[in-house]
Structure formats: C-alpha cells, structure tokens
Amino acid sequence: MTISRRTLGTTSPLDVSALGLGCMGMSEFYGPTDDTVEAGGIATIHRALDLGVTFLDTADMYGPFTNERLVGKALAGRRDEVQLATKFGNERGEDGSRLGINGRPEYVRSACDASLQRLGVDHLDLYYQHRVDQSVPIEETVGAMKELVVAGKVRHLGLSEASAANIRRAHAVHPITALQTEYSLFTRDLEDQILPTIRELGIGLVPYSPLGRGLLTGAITSSDTLADGDSRRTGYFPRFQGEALDANLALVERVRAIAESKGCTPGQLALAWVLAQGDDVVPIPGTKRVTHLEENVGAAAVTLTEDDLRSLGAAVPRDAVVGARYGDMSHIDS
C-alpha cells in the first residue's frame, strides 16, 4: 500500500508521510539494545522507507547519542528520501547521567552541531526543543534555533511538551512547524488548550506514544510481558503498575472488540483513531521490529466512520485511563 502525505505547519510547512517512525526504542528504554537490536532497527528504518514512511524521529538523549548514530547509519545513501527530525534539551552525559533540561542559546548551537555530526547530515528537516527550560525565556531558546535556520543547518522548528502560552511566545519569534506531544486514545488532555492553540496558529501535531507505549496494541497482558530492563516495569510509568495496569487492560479489551468488528488489530484501530483527528496530525509510533512496523502501516488502510469514532469514545472515555503518563510530571511544561 502507499502511505499518503500530510503537511505540518502552514507558515513554515513541511511535507511528510502521514505516518512517521519513532526510533527511540531501538537504542534505549524498552528492553535490550544489543548489536542484534541495532541491526533490527536499521532493517526497520530501511523497510519504513520502502513502504513510504519517510518521517523519522530521534533525539540526542536517546542512548544517549547512540540512536542518532544508528539513524545516521541507516540513512547512508538515502538521506534525500527522508524528513529527519531530532531534538535537544534533555541534556545527558556520555555515561547516561541526566544533567537536566537545557535551553541556553549556546547549548542549542552546540547540540545541533553534535547532532548533525552523529547523524552524518548537513541539515535537519525539523529540530525540536525536547523540553522547555523553565530557567531560560523561551524567546532566547527559539532565537538561537532561528539562527540555525538562517545558517542553513535546520529547515523547520518544533517544540515538544510545551504549554499553550509558551507555544505562542515561541511562534512569535519564529514560525513553529510542529508540536510533538503524547496523544492517543489513552492521553487526550491536550484537547483542552494545546490543540486549539496550535490550530489557531497553524502548527502541526506530531503525537508520540500514539499506541499508549504499547498498551493499545493488545500485546501487553501483564507486567511480565515486558522484558527485564524495560522502563515500563518501573514506577516511571504508573499506567503499567498493579491495579492501574489491570484497569487499563480492561479498556484495551474494549478496543480489541471494536477492532475485531473492523477486521484489524487493536493497534491499527488505535492508530487509525489518531490519524482521524485531522490532516494536521502525524503520529510517530515507535518500533524496532519490521513486523510491528508493517502492522502499524496497515493502520493507514483502516477507515473510521463517525459511528466508529463514537464507539471508541464510549469504549475509552477520556478520563477512564488510570495513572499519570509519567511518575514525575515536573518536566512537562504546563
């Protein structure tokens, strides 16, 4: 099948595949990341490009740093086929230590140069501030990002997990093409203020974790389903813990029942729901396996009627999900 195209942003538009690929899990957080996993990640990226999924998402902090190198290796000889996005702002040391959120202008410049080197490219199609630094006025951070556009190192600017107020302030400095934030059947709080704001300003939405970090695929049936070392087994992700997980899995079963009636998988139905939220929405489900990628791509062929959307809304009421999306929400701008 052919993946259609969508446009992120109106003032500074970026044409991308309607479905992107999140590359984070190829290097960290969701289980083992050995040489075999890296090879699988590269194969997944190559398969994505062959299927028309050309919008790739990474960040310097994934690994840390190793994910950008993996993506760069996968793109050798194929750079012109992709719309490449990476992020800065969650500063980490080479040893993996977390150094905090950094939005200082001098750091923006050095982080970009380092990402370009690791990726082996001369420009980024989309460069996000990964998290808002509350100690630095966002105008200063975006001002430095704007300089990168002028220098030709970056084509378009994005924000991740920014509040409505900071989105407005940033957009006044330089057009913001896309906002990346968590959005799925399981996470809909952005519908109150964030979504109306970005639509007013002509900013596209790039939902990460559109499958609820795998919950909505139906493949997770208990915490034992997850590999040792998978961060979802920790308190960092409350929705996967104890009674919260049991309650959330009951919601997944409702999604599964609707998916069966549609002749698709629960994950495909969940992705189709995100895609149906607007032509300015481009989800980036992450995976390190070709089989999962191919299943995700199948979501593009699932057509949802108004009745389907109402049924899903009734099956998963917006406030029915149990547990915060992070155990520590202090890094989320609000």
Automatic annotation (TrEMBL):
Q: Which Pfam families match?
A: Aldo_ket_red (PF00248)
Residues that span the membrane, as ranges: none
Q: Which residues form the NADP-dependent oxidoreductase domain?
A: 23-312
List the coiled-coil residues: none
Alphabetized InterPro entries for the sequence: Aldo-Keto_reductase, NAD(P)_OxRdtase_dom_sf, NADP_OxRdtase_dom
For this protein, what is any one GO molecular function term? oxidoreductase activity
Keyword terms, alphabetized: Oxidoreductase
Identify the SUPFAM superfamilies for this entry. NAD(P)-linked oxidoreductase
Gene Ontology terms, cellular component aspect? Answer: cytoplasm
Domain of life per record:
Bacteria
Q: What is this protein called?
A: Predicted oxidoreductase
Q: Which organism is it from?
A: Nocardioides szechwanensis
